[in-house]
Amino acid sequence: MKKKVLSLMLTGVLAASMLTGCGGTSPAAETPAAETPAPAAETKEEAPAAEAPAAEEPAAEETAEAPADLGSGEIKIWVADNVVDFTKKQAESFLASDPAYSGYTVLVEPVGEGDAAGNMITDVTAGADIYGFAQDQIARLVSAGALEEVEPSNAAKVESENAAGVVNAAKVGNTLYAYPMTADNGYFLYYDKSVVTDPSTIEGVIADCEAAGKNFYMDLGGWYQVAYFFGTGCTLTYDTDDDGNFTACNMDYDSDKGLAALKGLVQLTSSKSFQQGSSAGDAVNYAAIVDGTWDAGTIQETLGDNYACAKLPTFTVDGQTYQMSGFNGCKLLGVKPQEDEGKLAVCDALADFLTSEEVQLARYNEVGWGPSNIAAQGSDAVKADPALSALAEQFAYTIPQGNYPGDYWSLAESLRDSIIGEYQGADDATLQAALKSFQDSCISYAK
After folding, report:
1. Most buried of the four, 117, 145, 417, 419, by CB within 10 Å?
2. Are 351 and 179 a contacting pair, CB within 8 Å?
3. Are residues 231 and 173 in the same domain?
4. Same domain, 195 and 176
5. Element (H, E) at 131
6. How far apart are CA 252 and CA 236, in angstroms?
7. Roughly how many angstroms between the first and final C-alpha of the chain, as a whole number?
8. Backbone Cα Rg of the chain
C-alpha cells in the first residue's frame, strides 16, 4: 500500500510540475472556455471572472514547490566482482539524470550471486539495498523478509519485456519479487573440434576423448546430474507458498525412467576419460567440458582456434536414446525493504534501470552476460555469440530451475559420490533401491 501511495504522490508531483511550467502563460491562454463560439458575448461581460485563474496561480506554484521528498543517502549495491565498475558507472549516470535523485550516492561492493542471499539472510538490516542473486534463492529471501515486491507500476513492463521463464523465476506465488537481469544460467558442451568429431552423442564424445588421451569433464552434483534424470523424463520440483515455505515435492525418480538415468550416469563415469568437475579454470588436458557461459573466455583461451560449443549430447541406455536436459536459470536483481519510502522509490527506479534493455545489452558487450530482455536477446551481437547460441539451443530441452531446499543439494552430492564410487558394477535392484531412498529423503524436505 505504501508503494501505491508513493506512486500516486509522485504522479501528482509530475502533474504539478507541468502546471508550473504553464504558470507564465497569459490569463487568456488559461481560459480556453472563453473561446467557445456560442456564449462569446456573455464571456466578455464576465471579464473579471476570467481573470480568476491568474489570481489562483500562486496556489498552483505552492503545490509544485512541495513535491514528495525522496530524501538523500547512500544506496548500497552488491554485484559480482566483474561487473562492479560497470554497475557503478551505470548507477551514477542514472542518478545524475534526474534532479529528484540528486541526494543519493551509490556504494557498489563485490558480492557474487552465490553469496548475496546467505549474507542478506544473516543480517537483512546490514545487507545491500539492491543486490544480484541466483534465482534458486528467491524463496528463502522472501521468507527472510529480504525482498520487497517489485514496484507495481514497473511490474507489467518487467513481465512483458523479459523472457517468460525468467519472469516466472522472479516470482513467489503470484507476486513478482525481483527484476530479471540475465538468462544465461545454464550449461552446455564446450569441445575441441580438432578432437571431437561429433558432439551430438556422449558416446561419440567419450570415444574421441579416449582415443586422443584427453579428458571429458562434467560435474555430477545436484545442478548437473538432473541433465540425465530430466533427460529420461523424470520430475523433481518443489511447491512453495507465498512466504517461500516448501509445501510439496513432485518427484518420480523411483521409476523405470529414474533407473535409466542412473544407469546412464554410472556408464559415463566408467570411462577413463571422465573427470568430475565443471570449472574450466581447474580442468586439465580436456577436449570437452560441460560448463556455462561464465567460463567461455577461459575455455576459448585454452582451445584457441579449435574452440567450439554445442548443446548437450544425447546418451543411450539399454538401446534407448535420450537427449540430455538440465536446469536453466538466471540472475535476478532484488530490492531490500526500506523504512524510508523515498529511498525505496529511488531503489526501485534504479533496479528497473539496471535491468533495462539498454543496460542489459551494454552489460553483455562489456562482460558477456546473456540478457533476459527479449529485445536485447534479438541483437546481432548476442545472436552471433557461440556460447550463448549453444545455450539457447540447449534451453529448448531444459527446465526452469525453481526453488529447492538446501538439503537437496547436499543429498545430490552424496548421490554423485556413490555414482562415481560404489555403484560401479551394481545391478538394477541395487540402483533402484538407491533411487527409492533418495526420493524418500527429497520428499521429506517439504513439510
Report:
1. 117
2. yes
3. no
4. no
5. strand 130-134
6. 7
7. 31
8. 28
**Strand, helix or coil for residue 40:** helix
Total domain count for the chain?
3
CB atoms < 10 A from the CB of 46, how many?
11
Report whether 80 contacts 369 (CB < 8 A): no
Length of the chain: 447
C-alpha cell at 193: 573440434
Q: Are 182 and 330 in contact (CB under 8 A)?
A: yes
Cell of residue 3, nine digits: 508503494
Q: Which three cell numbers stand for residue 113?
A: 550471486
Q: How far is CA 419 from CA 35, 156, 256, 352, in A?
A: 86, 46, 17, 44
Torsion angle, CA of 241/399/141/222, rounded to 10 degrees? 110
Check: CB of residue 331 under 8 Å from CB of residue 169: no
pLDDT tens-digit profile of 405-422?
Answer: 889 999 999 999 999 999
| Judgement on whether residues 83 and 51 belong to the same structural domain of the protein | no
**What's the pTM?**
0.71
- Looking at the structure, tell me whether residues 321 and 335 fall in a common domain: no
Residue type, 323: Q
pLDDT at 243: 76
Q: What is the CATH number of the domain that holds 79?
A: 3.40.190.10
Give tens-digit pLDDT for 3-29. 544 544 444 433 333 333 333 333 333
The CB-side HSE value for 160 (13 A sphere, CA atoms) comes to 5
Q: Which domain holds residue 214?
A: 188-325+405-444
Low-confidence ranges of the chain (pLDDT < 50): 1-2, 4-5, 7-67
Query: Nine-digit cell at 188?
Result: 552446455
pLDDT at residue number 366: 94
